[in-house]
Amino acid sequence: MVKNQFFEIRNFVTVAQAGSFTTAAQALGMTGSALSKSIMRLEARLGTKLLHRTTRRVSLTNDGDSYLSDCQNAMAILDEAESRLGSEQRLPAGRVRIDLPSAFGRRYILSALLELSKQYEELDLSVTFSDRTVDLMADGVDVAVRVGVLDDNVDLVARRLGEQRRVICGSPSYFNRRGIPLTKDDLSQHDCITGWPMTLRHSWLLKNSDGTTEAYEIPVRHEIGDCEAILATALAGCGLAQVPTWLVEEHLRSGTLISVLEELAVEDVPIHAIWIKTPYIQPKLRAVIDKLVELAQLPNSKFKSGV
Question: pTM of the full predicted structure?
Answer without folding.
Answer: 0.66
